[in-house]
């Protein structure tokens, strides 16, 4: 497997996700996404549907939330331009960036690709959506350590 972006910024999380069984990995990704959505203050009908489907362990198409990611990225880029022109505050751009990254984390969580790669990418994006990375680390660690969810080997 190729080295993930998460391994570059949080190697311990990347390693833990790779070693985790499918249930714990999914729980960790859901916890990371929930924390990112909470800290970025992102509530949208599209994210709500994806979160509910993931919580129910249903297959989710990432296309709808991917459109939201595109919208939020565009808004963040527009705000970045406005900051550079002196007509917007940096804090507005940072909030928009966080919302886009939180949505991106959810899109990766819904991705049907490699479970390891999608999980690492989701947590990587979630880390870039939060201001309190310790809370995200704690949420992921708690999900990975939760008893009774390990699959039989």
When the domains are counted, the total is 1
Q: Which bin fits the share of residues in helices?
A: over 70%
Largest sheet: none
Distance between the termini: 22 Å
Radius of gyration: 16 Å
Could you report the average pLDDT, rounded to the nearest whole number? 89
Low-confidence stretches: 148-153
Query: What class do helices, strands and sheet pairing give?
Result: mainly alpha
Overall outline: globular
Which H/E pattern describes the elements? HHHHHHHH
Number of helices: 8
Residue fraction in strands: under 5%
Q: Please give the number of β-strands.
A: 0
Describe the structure in your own words:
It is a single chain. With 153 residues, the protein is mainly α. The protein has one domain (10-145). The protein has helices at 5-9, 11-19, 22-40, 45-55, 63-84, 90-110, 115-127, 133-145. Helix 3 runs antiparallel to helix 8. It is globular and about 50 Å long. It starts with a helix and ends in an 8-residue tail after the last helix.
